[in-house]
Amino acid sequence: MPNELCAHLDGIDEGIMPTSTGCAECLKAGDEWVHLRLCLTCGNVGCCDDPKNTHATKHHHATKHPMIRSFEPGEKWLWCYVDEVGFES
Question: Number of structural domains, the chain?
Fold first, then answer.
């Protein structure tokens, strides 16, 4: 069962609202992103680790918010930075 692998699943706010429509930091800098990730603690939208900016991971390091999910249409997965484990949702 996934909860045995990651206790952070119990802390997910199912009603979390995104704080922006794109990577918040890239939008501020006028930069581009590849894929978007949604923080499941506060709704921050950040870019993935493939481009140069890695804003989703930087957000995790700054805030210690443990979980993200894909913010891409058709993708249904979660990732826990703390336990380094992913799940299909």
Answer: 1
